[in-house]
Automatic annotation (TrEMBL), chains A, B:
Gene3D superfamilies: Medium-chain alcohol dehydrogenases, catalytic domain, NAD(P)-binding Rossmann-like Domain. Pfam families: ADH_N, ADH_zinc_N. It comes from the Bacteria. Its cofactor is Zn(2+). This is Zinc-dependent alcohol dehydrogenase family protein. Residues 180-304 form the Alcohol dehydrogenase-like C-terminal domain. Residues 25-128 form the Alcohol dehydrogenase-like N-terminal domain. Keywords: Metal-binding, Zinc. InterPro entries: ADH-like_C, ADH-like_N, GroES-like_sf, NAD(P)-bd_dom_sf.
Length: 347, 347
């Protein structure tokens, strides 16, 4: 089959690789219908996260079950399914508590020896625990497929950030980061009942989506000016709940500065310098909490899925470019150069 | 009157200073019965926190109201009262939410221009909001006075840490720091229902108190060995709830390392390097939360006071040395050299 491989920074290829097969009785093989490129894939693309030459990539996909191992009972051949960005066994202490990302037997798509989502098919370990079945009729609805695909990562990650930040009725939420996760953080905050949502971002195409998703205010300034603008919108106090969806020193510094005393930062931006932006003395003096991390999106899918299916939330606008599998390298280039917000791969 | 003043690192004096008087209609003057020396006072003593020569010091005290301004109605002359370690106005947004440490008109005892607790008397701003009345009969009960004095800081701060860490029934709590705050963290965790409490500490006199306060296990190792020991006690997973009551790089590093995936660190050690010990990548991968800061102990006094009065909790054993006011410099020396755990000053 064909699948995306990464060879060096900025060197993405679509290559012939072995077809996936069922290896363990809990495995399934899923034929990918839709996958996408994640902002976090760009860390590998840019060489800031190490990859072995030829390693697969892509951790967001949905598709049709093609084959299942002898022990798989929850999904069967022909089912439309979505996969979260990590597999998990569903039975360890952490899985039972919902922290599937800490699963004792969990792993990442695209790690060495495993398939990546940006390919024709994927071997899925622990298929019963990992995959979530979707209504078959969704397969013929492009808009709905796009919305469902976000459940594999960005929508669940935005939800995790909003929960960590404490988004709820009666509070003001601010979102640092205008990528797909930040925008889904806006949508999640709105869904959780936040009264006021301030989106920080300079790109009008993105802030327009933020407004569609529920942002009541947009702050286009950066750095100190952004902090001043948020404080002006919040009687000088800052936001109760702040989503940090970037992971850099500057974004974390901004997040701390715009959080109201006693508030919380929900952080989901993969840390690339953000630790340095965390001023613990300021957080101490102002009782600012930090909660978040890699999002257990598998746990959130059953909660978010009905709202996506009935249209209560529609995260599909985060995709603004669609490529075929052979176009994946171009998709990376577009996201790296910020000419695309998020790229969908339609097989 | 006589009061403690700080002149340079390691240069504490007891000097003649002006008698406090009511300046504003909301003020009270409190004649101090008991005060104490805090671990955080040692940062000033050692020159690690800057002080102006002659500045007052001491932020924990209880005593008898001597005089009140025209607008004070909640406490009156002759009342036995305890003061939290900051004053607060009781009416601003933050005070109404219980975050009295972020009060818009709040301040610290011993800051420039204000009295400190380690003296004969203190002018208390916003007396109605700041002071909490105690039963008069407590004044003649030395043990109870000592226990009540901890409500001014260490007991409330330990409670804040335990809450931040998420101590509750069914969880394992670990406490980093065997000072008075760490020990009160043990007591608070026990009070909140924690099943298992692991105290980290090497000094037997202190770990004995930890056991009296509810610790079920004591880990005497330090650094990596301490981490291994806690993991061994917790099936390799770590503690759900970790109290960080020191504030150094090493203590925070230990706290992160012994927190279970999905758990939380309640941090109340005044940051002196602890930011560097916070490995955000580890916290991200393992979904470790950080909550805490300067404790709004004023808010906690009404909740903790009944339990102190009826003996449900007795934090008084944190005091192991009592000096008179003129003995305060010796008290600092004893705490700095760790020959005393916590020094009470009996006027």
């Amino acid at each position: 089959m064909r699948a995306t491989t990464i060879h060096a920074p900025f060197d993405m290829r679509v290559a012939d690789v072995p077809d996936p097969v069922v290896r363990n009785p809990g495995d399934a093989v899923v034929r990918v219908l839709r996958s996408c490129i994640c902002g976090s894939d760009l860390w590998a693309y840019r060489g800031e996260s190490a990859r072995r030459a030829g390693q697969r990539i892509g951790h967001e996909f949905l598709g049709i079950v093609e084959e299942t191992g002898a022990e798989v009972t929850g999904v069967g051949r022909g089912d439309l399914v979505v996969a979260p960005f990590m597999w998990s066994d569903g039975v360890c202490d952490y899985c039972r508590e919902g922290l599937t990302t800490s699963c004792e037997h969990g792993g990442f798509w695209g790690s060495v020896g495993s398939d990546g989502g940006q390919g024709e098919a994927v071997r899925v370990p622990f298929a019963d625990a990992t995959l979530v079945a979707l209504p078959a009729e969704a397969a013929s609805d492009d808009r709905l497929l796009a919305a469902l695909l976000t459940l594999s990562d960005v929508m669940g990650t935005g939800h995790h950030a909003a929960l960590g930040a404490g988004a709820r009725a009666g509070v003001t939420v601010a979102v640092v980061g205008d990528g797909a996760v930040g925008l889904c953080g806006v949508l999640a905050a709105k869904r959780l009942g936040a009264d006021r949502i301030i989106a920080l971002g300079r790109h009008e195409a993105r802030t327009d989506i933020a407004r569609r998703f529920g942002a009541t205010d947009v702050v286009a300034e950066r750095g100190d000016a952004a902090v001043d603008a948020v404080r002006e919108l919040t009687r000088g106090q800052g936001a109760h709940a702040v989503v940090e969806a970037v992971g850099t020193e500057q974004s974390m510094r901004t997040a701390v500065s715009i959080t109201r005393d006693g508030g919380a930062i929900g952080f989901v931006g993969v840390p690339h310098g953000s630790g340095t932006g965390l001023d613990l003395s300021v957080m101490f003096d102002r009782n600012i909490a930090l909660r978040g991390g890699v999002a257990p999106v598998r746990t959130y899918i059953p909660e978010l899925l009905p709202d996506v299916l009935d249209g209560t939330i529609d995260p599909s606008p985060v995709f603004d470019l669609t490529v075929g599998l052979e176009g994946v390298p171009d998709g990376y280039k577009a996201m790296d150069e910020r000419t695309a917000l998020k790229v969908m791969v339609a097989n």
